[in-house]
Amino acid sequence: MNPKPVFFIVGAPKCGTTALYYYLKQHPQLYLPQKELYFFGSDFTFRHPRPTHSYYLSLFKEAKPGQLCGEASVWYLYSQNAAREIYDFNPNARIIIMLRNPVQMLYALHSQQVYEGNENLPVFEDALLAEPLRRRGKMLPPLIGCPYEGLFYSDVARFTPQVSRFLNVFGPDRVKIILYDDFAANAAAVYRQTLEFLGVDAGFTVETKRINPNKTIKYPLLRNLLKRRSAAWVNLVKTLLPSKKVRKWVQNKLWAVNTQYEERKPLNPQTQAFLEQAFTPDIAALSRLLNRNLLHWVSAAEDTK
Q: How many C-beta atoms lie closer than 10 Å to residue 5's C-beta?
């Protein structure tokens, strides 16, 4: 029988989850398959089929005896259903939540969505304005790979109800909340605390470095070809490259060749001020929930990069 995951990095996106996943994956007592599995979160709408129960469990079959299995899917936090579904799957699971200044998070998220082809409006303000139409099923990108609901930006970064769901379902002892500010300031300390939370050797160290910097795409057409899922296209690729391992290698190489790294442009000050005002009530509520003052997220004129 395949082992079951016992810990989950549930989000939020662009809050350091990829770096933490990368660090945890190096620990000899832990096993994590690829990120973004999305087995839970039945309220989400995806363009592609969801993994079956048997396939999901098969992703953990390579775990060695004694290793704790975990996974990282950053949209679970935003999901209305994922907390309860994870609890029903494993009531003893441990939950890791990573949070960030919501304005910074949204701007970074939009940039990543554009890079991945999940967002076809490259101007951030246009994407914000398109939300009402997208809620009615209009203006959705044809090759979107994330949940459609991931484009409802005004909801994605309202963290208080999302965190509350997991705290209410699992209780505070089984939920670890990490702020991106703390992680960026001292990743090694946060990593050690996370290992203690998971109950594994906290003396194991890794090299902490910048993971998942801002990316842009060189050739959108090539990216769109890599994202195509039509039966005819999939069959053609399988005919040309019968080996699944070779197909994955070629895909990764093409993504790498098609990627360039560059700093994000600063967010428009008017947009930043508008979003800070919009998110202030939720930030105040989150401050009370976490018993930590987070209002500096909006009271200081931060350079949102």
A: 25
